[in-house]
Amino acid sequence: MPKDFKRLPSLNGLRAFEVVSRHLNFRSAAEELNVTQGAVAQQIRNLEAHLGIQLFLRLPRTLALSDAGLGYVANIRKAFELIADATEAVRPEPQHVTISVMPSFAAKWLIPRLPYFTNVHPQIELRIVASRRLANFQTDAIDMAVRLGRAPFGPGLTADLLCEQVIVAVGSPVLAEKMGRPLQPSDVQQIPLLHDDLALWPQYLGMILPGETPQPSKNIRINHTSLAIEAAIDGQGLALASLLFVAEDIAAGKLVRYFDTELRPGTNYYVVAPRKPRHAASVNVVREWLLSKSEPEHSDGLTEAD
């Protein structure tokens, strides 16, 4: 037998109840709902009258859910989630995906590949948010992200390994020729070092010159890896960078590796997305494209995890 929907309480009242249950404050709930505080209080009174129970305990400076209110709100939230899922399912799939990435990843890896994505998937508009700030999938309207870290990244998220982070020392081939060949680890003290925000030089120097305290000729500090790489290409010094970022510059002869030593910090690049993305079909297309490491394919020296 179908339910008697006429006996259901007001949907606006239920919405007000759910919001108030989170804030435990009529004023804050009113701000979220964009109505007056009095309107919210009236919605709650009407709902309590309809149900014949008290949903909130009115305390001197706050509210508290009653035992009945605690049980009721859990089911109401599930009902709203079902409505939200049904609504998303019936809407046409949007033709855009917003992806959060670090600025250096955007500059050195993602943006050079965008023409290839557009050629293969012209129906999807890829929107890139390049920021060092960690994006929030719920509040920032972000569909997916590329993050440097260690999996897992949190409950409710999927994390697919894009590439292992392998750090190498690179510089201009012209600068290397001036130094003479073959280069020795101690030569690092005669070359300006380009430091970025990852601050990996002390660890790398400890690997190539164990037990020593090398003094480079000059330290230059740059807050983005991509800018440090450009300075290295320009012959201004030696940079530490992920092979993910410099493989194509090495293949093109713009950079050379100065030493064989590789630093593996243990943090890697992952494609991260909610387990239940808002736009699942489009997000899956972008995820698969990212993981395929589509063109450009100059990946000399690129090392992936097994």
From TrEMBL:
<comment type="similarity">
    <text>Belongs to the LysR transcriptional regulatory family.</text>
</comment>
<dbReference type="InterPro" id="IPR000847">
    <property type="entry name" value="LysR_HTH_N"/>
</dbReference>
<keyword id="KW-0238">DNA-binding</keyword>
<dbReference type="GO" id="GO:0006351">
    <property type="term" value="P:DNA-templated transcription"/>
</dbReference>
<dbReference type="InterPro" id="IPR005119">
    <property type="entry name" value="LysR_subst-bd"/>
</dbReference>
<keyword id="KW-0805">Transcription regulation</keyword>
<keyword id="KW-0804">Transcription</keyword>
<dbReference type="Pfam" id="PF03466">
    <property type="entry name" value="LysR_substrate"/>
</dbReference>
<dbReference type="GO" id="GO:0043565">
    <property type="term" value="F:sequence-specific DNA binding"/>
</dbReference>
<dbReference type="GO" id="GO:0003700">
    <property type="term" value="F:DNA-binding transcription factor activity"/>
</dbReference>
<dbReference type="Pfam" id="PF00126">
    <property type="entry name" value="HTH_1"/>
</dbReference>
<feature type="domain" description="HTH lysR-type">
    <location>
        <begin position="9"/>
        <end position="66"/>
    </location>
</feature>
<dbReference type="InterPro" id="IPR036390">
    <property type="entry name" value="WH_DNA-bd_sf"/>
</dbReference>
<dbReference type="InterPro" id="IPR036388">
    <property type="entry name" value="WH-like_DNA-bd_sf"/>
</dbReference>
<protein>
    <submittedName>
        <fullName>LysR family transcriptional regulator</fullName>
    </submittedName>
</protein>
<dbReference type="InterPro" id="IPR058163">
    <property type="entry name" value="LysR-type_TF_proteobact-type"/>
</dbReference>
